[in-house]
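Crash report, auto-generated. Payload:
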Amino acid sequence: MTADPSTFRFVSSNRRVREDRRFVVGNGHYVADVPLEGMLHVAIVGSQYPAARILGIDASAALAMPGVHYVLTGEELAGAVDQLMNGLDTPNVRRFPLAVGQVRYAGEWVAAVVADTRALAEDASEKVRVSYEPLPYLTKAGEALEPSSPPVHPPHGSNVLLDKTFVWGEVEKHFTESPRHLSFRVTWGRNSTVPIETFGVVASWDPWREMLDVWASIQMPKYPDQIARALRIPANNVRVHQDVDVGGSYGVKRGIKHTVLVAHLARRLGRPVRLLEDRLENMRGGDAHGPERIFDVDVAFNDEGIVKSMKMKALDNAGAYAGRAPFQLGKPIGAIVGPYKIESVQYRAQSVTTNKAVQEAVRGFGQSPTNYAIETAIDKVARACGLDRVEIRRRNFIRADEFPYLIPSGTRYDSGEYHTVVDKVLAHIDYPALQAERDRLRASGLLAGIGIAACLEPSGGNSSFEPLLNEKNQTTTWMDSARINVDGLGFVTVTIHTTSAGQGHETLAATVVAEVLQIDPDLIRIVRPDSLACLPSNTPVGSRMAIMLGGACFHAAQKLKAKLTRIGAFRLGVAADVATYENGAVADPASGRKLDWAELVNIAHRGFHLLPPDTEPGLEATHVMQVPTGDKLPEGGRVQMYPCHSFEFHMVLIALDPVLGKPEIRRYVIGHDCGTVINPHIVKGMTLGGIAHGIGAALLEEFVYDDEGQMLTQSFMDYLLPSSHEVPQVEIVHHCTPSPFTVFGQKGSGESGYLGAPAAISGALNDAVADLGIFFDKLPIRIFAISDAVAAARANPTGKTAV
Amino acid sequence: MKLDIGGTETIQTDVETLWRALNDPVVLTRCIPGCKAMTETAPDAYKVDMQLRVAAVGGSFEGEIALSDKQPPNTCRITVSGAGTLGHGSGEAKFAITPLSEGFSQLSYQGVGEVGGLVAGVGQRILGSVSKHLIGRFFTTLRKEFEDGGALAAGAAE
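Recovered output after restart:
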């Protein structure tokens, strides 16, 4: 850490989020607001079968409609573009934006209809006749492991995309030595984030300048590179406009297939083309589902509840194409023991293809499911040992004096004060009183339970999981950048080089630059150049921007401050290390003489003769930031994953009527430590939104497929989101353990709340029904599952029920 | 998704007339909800064009209907398959006509269907009731055919 928290002026202060103004008044500028002359619109023809050979596509009736310009099929597109990037070394799992020869899930894109309006394109899409020959299909991950299962990609030979076992430490020895073991299975249902703004993209091709312009609702690393590669054009022929507001993403806005499709059409037709998904297209064919995972967990522990070793098998149902799904099994390796001192771990990561929609990255990149499995294990050990669930966590936590702490899988945790956070939460909530309230609810005839979850949010995202799971990948940097320019009138403009999906990066960048330069943040303009004018950057994923964009802004501002100080010192006739910088002015402390901001700016912009030797004119500084600690390739299956580790501790009280089964959250408290907070409103918003998202994952949201391979929850009538009825008032207890690896001690908070809420809610419901012999082992825990299980248990009080 | 359909209806006509009506594409076109055209492609085989709305989606269906195991004027097996913008569907049902008291017949039917595509996902919660509703409309229209003033009232079908 290079800044002293006691001197913070703008960092951590109660300042408004500058982006909020335009969003609140409805003046965001989204991809749907991009008006291009002569723009055409796309509607998609989706597959009706989970698996089928495409025998023919007859578009003649659609093309005969006035205003319909084109119907694009997979055969044509596959001949014109390269297959979409595949992160794993699975060359025969080929993916194109439109199905080629065969469909692999119900809803997969088969053809794209282009017309003057979206409505016309939709009408015409109904006239496209596709004849299919249905093929065998599968939907369950367990079936996909069977060698006899129908292969989703016959050339690949099986449905297994990834099956890798890691052993970190002396697992077998620890299991043999430990007096007690337990094992269980839990399942994380297929859910995702479903932003209110669906994915949209506009592309336009100028053949005379050889330039593809793209506007998209995007949160995708290396997006321009991927477009150029797929279209086989030079990367500097692709210009992505980053100044497009993104109406929510939480990981999933990665519409590369949409973009390649639209970009090809724009080139083919010589007109701008737009694809804006409707909700049905988004839910069934947008390729934005999240992890669907079965965990088999074994833990070895002693009578004191100390967990020595863990074996975890995670079997993930990737859907029809690899997408980012397999890597979401890799990232949790960086926090595979959670906040606990588990000494050794065996981890088997399995990813399989089935005839379901494709996964995309979702908030936490696989961490929340893993945390759910770990926390379930800790609760079960507590129960087996007859220990309080808070006490067992305290016993297993890494202690504050043990940081930086190396976990078995190779990541060094930066810092944490887990015991202190728990103490603060217990004091805030009055734990004995909470237990008394639960018992009072139970005595009144309700079911009631307390849920507890302690977990980490790895942050500062790089892509170490890629070389870990694919040895051909040798990536060791995931940089982000900032550039600061002070113009001739002394006004400051900062460029940032990605889109934002509501994370408040403009506020972040302004706050950090203002902090270093000691000027008013409101005087700083933040802009996003198009991708051709951008410095090397990735994208706001992996809870990285406070660390990475914040870090890049900090270092660029330091460079600028150093230049201002050199200029001032030279004019004052003192050494640069003697001169002081304060509030934009440079002074000689001995004489008290000083040059203010306007004078320094004037010299830099107009007085080359006044500049120190070998000084470039102007006031400009850039910084390309490397992820802290992320500089090495994996060795022996171990790698430093992310640099920083935020901590959250959830306590929740749930009550429910035993007949109705509808959970009601009576109290929700989260202790949250993401190090130094840059802007408290942003962190609060992230945490509350993350908990709401976690409530959805725990109780409501699931992409359900029937036995015929059809997706049943395609709209918000059936895919249920938490509303204000389900989301309680959340009390946040703050704590700050600065990270030693970042400029202000900040850690990430972009996934906070979501990483522990599902585990906490599951824990509360299982506490509520434990005395009935019920254990809910699958998320989401729907109302009907609760009421059915309670009714069955009451009808048969001796039987143990796993639901 | 799978759908079970079945029921019993009472129609005010005799067994023979009802049998003829149920084998007459002209009558069926009038009675099947959303049916735009029904053309005979072979003996006991028809092509149908339908226009339907279910929940938030609407669209057109092209289907084939085949009649088999016919035992006039009492029982018959009907096989339906079709596909369209809404999705695809197939089904098989058996119906039986038995005489009731003077001037009335009973028609009972039992079958299973399978529906896929958009309609399965969007409409799954209501498909059961939608199918009941559509069948109800079929019989309401069919009954009207036999009522006073209806096209098939007392000998009009001859």
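Post-recovery validation: Chain A has three domains: 8-27+479-625, 34-135+196-248+254-285, 381-461+638-802.
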